[in-house]
Write a structure and sequence with these properties.
307 residues, four-stranded mixed beta sheet
């Protein structure tokens, strides 16, 4: 990790949590060239820290990073494709290749009918999570600290968004809410209930004395499936948070015990993990959609459930 820079926030010491107005005070440089106290203490705090409040809403250091990443992505993509050309520029080619590549990847998974509708969600998740995962490698992220004059402790000014469980849980809840919308719109509630609780056996091939008792068995299997669906946001959020938080903690620990520059050796590993986790999250959401919406494309190309 690059050399850590410590800052003191000049603010009134009557409150532990700085207000929005207190952030207007200038930052005074305290020291450079030494590991931060948090790194020396063994890593990153498990929970994000509130920097200030907007009304009753506390704004944490991970929220600030998420907002910056979201605004940067919007600006960069808009600038890259603001005037599409027949002969694309380099920036336009990068955006078009990424769009086409992800569309080609998800189409066989979610189904041809749902691919274009689900594409904005999936490419948004992939790009946002990818940059969020890599944000811990950017200069200043996790290396600038605010000193609290009352407690004497240190607080990260900028924290990687996905190193906060709240951020990954929010992403998972948005993904599951969109999943519910897609299956209801493109499969329909009747088909969804039949897919979850219906008898999957073929009445023409299974004897009657076995076929009808199977209704009870498949109904119980459906209940188990509903429970697994309810746990999907938890598994998605914990998987992403655990990998990003672990990598960030490793970088902090290495910056505290190794000489300057050596933590850079871990950058390729962090880049790979960030890419894999963004891909896994997006792929799992695609699979969840395709498990119900892709039935029509799997059976001889026949038309699936009504739109």
């Amino acid at each position: 990790m690059p050399t850590t820079t410590r800052f003191i926030l000049l603010q009134p010491s009557v409150r532990n949590r700085p207000s929005l107005t207190s952030l207007a005070f200038p930052l005074a440089l305290l020291a450079t060239g030494a590991p931060a106290a948090a790194a020396e203490g063994g890593g990153v705090e498990t929970a994000a820290t509130a920097l200030f409040s907007i009304g009753s809403l506390p704004v944490t250091n991970s929220m600030v990073t998420s907002w910056v990443v979201a605004v940067a992505l919007i600006l960069v993509i808009r600038l890259a494709v603001r005037r599409p050309k027949l002969v694309p520029t380099r920036a336009q080619s990068i955006v078009e290749d990424m769009v086409q590549g992800i569309l080609n990847l998800i189409s066989p998974i979610v189904g041809a009918r749902v691919a274009k509708a689900a594409f904005p969600l999936l490419i948004g998740l992939f790009t946002f999570i990818l940059i969020q995962n890599w944000s811990g490698l950017f200069p200043g992220v996790g290396t600038i600290y605010l000193a609290d004059p009352k407690t004497g402790g240190w607080t990260e000014l900028i924290r990687p968004g996905n190193a906060d469980l709240n951020s990954t849980l929010a992403l998972a809840l948005v993904a599951i809410a969109c999943w519910f919308y897609y299956i209801m719109r493109y499969a329909g509630p009747v088909f969804v209930l039949k897919d979850l609780f219906g008898n999957k056996a073929d009445k023409n091939e299974v004897p009657a004395f076995l076929y009808y008792p199977l209704f009870v068995i498949f109904f119980l299997v459906g209940i188990i499936e509903v429970i697994s669906i309810l746990f999907r946001p938890i598994s998605l959020s914990l998987r992403l948070f655990g990998n990003v938080f672990g990598g960030e903690s490793l970088m902090h620990a290495m910056s505290g015990i190794m000489k300057w520059g050596l933590p850079v050796l871990f950058y390729p590993l962090e880049i790979l993990i960030g890419l894999v986790q963004a891909f896994v999250f997006t792929l799992l959401v695609s699979v969840y959609i395709g498990l119900i919406c892709n039935h029509g494309d799997d059976h001889g190309g026949k038309e699936g459930p009504a739109h």
